[in-house]
Specification:
Length: about 210
């Protein structure tokens, strides 16, 4: 990782419980009245599912904040979620080029659980002219499907019982050959050959 990683601020909140005892629109109380029930939040989501939450928070931090990275994996405790581009935790990193600072937001099960600031001395060189997060077209689910169907990812998965999958979206500065790109990587739980493929985040082409 380039740049310093000196942390300047940090805030932690609690993720919502995964247990939602009621799913109906309302529940009766002892006084025979009804109160609204909050719908259950999905335990897993794609990178785009929770990006609006991260973006809204980042814009509170700096109005010039731009997405530069989103990352997740299929780990589920000691087990693994299906390799479909969805997971219970996404990390979104934003940049403010004028103040040379990176802002990282962690979202778990649809709720912000952590936020950090980091110095990024090379912000201007690395991210000046980088695309807007609104130019991002290919979601993590689509990137995985493209890799599995067009780059032999499914053939690799079918030969190994337990695989850790990493999903990494990165934005590059002006002049980059692929300004928005997914890196989809598969790693066997035990020793073995790894698999890695890149997908254009705007067109869906294998790169």
């Amino acid at each position: 990782m380039l740049g310093c990683t000196a942390q300047s601020t940090k805030q932690t909140t609690q993720a919502p419980s995964q247990e939602t005892p009621e799913t109906s629109a309302s529940v009766s109380t002892a006084a025979n009245t009804t109160v609204p029930v909050t719908p259950a939040v999905s335990a897993t989501g794609s990178a785009m599912d929770w990006y609006p939450i991260a973006k809204a928070e980042a814009l509170k931090w700096r109005t010039d904040a731009k997405l530069i990275e989103a990352s997740g994996d299929n780990r589920n405790g000691k087990n693994y979620y299906a390799i479909d581009g969805k997971t219970d935790k996404w990390i979104y990193s934003f940049i403010s080029v004028p103040i040379l600072t990176k802002y990282r937001i962690i979202i778990e099960a649809g709720a912000i659980t952590d936020m950090d600031n980091y110095d990024e001395p090379l912000a201007k060189m690395m991210y000046d002219g980088s695309p807007s997060g609104d130019d991002w077209v290919i979601d993590s689910t689509s990137a995985v499907e493209i890799v599995n169907t067009k780059a032999n990812g499914q053939d690799f998965i079918s030969t190994i019982s337990k695989i850790r999958a990493n999903y990494l979206l990165k934005f590059a500065g002006m002049g980059a050959a692929t300004p928005i790109a997914w890196t989809i990587s598969y790693f066997p739980e035990n020793y073995g050959q790894n698999f890695m493929t890149y997908v254009n985040g705007e067109t869906g082409d294998i790169v």
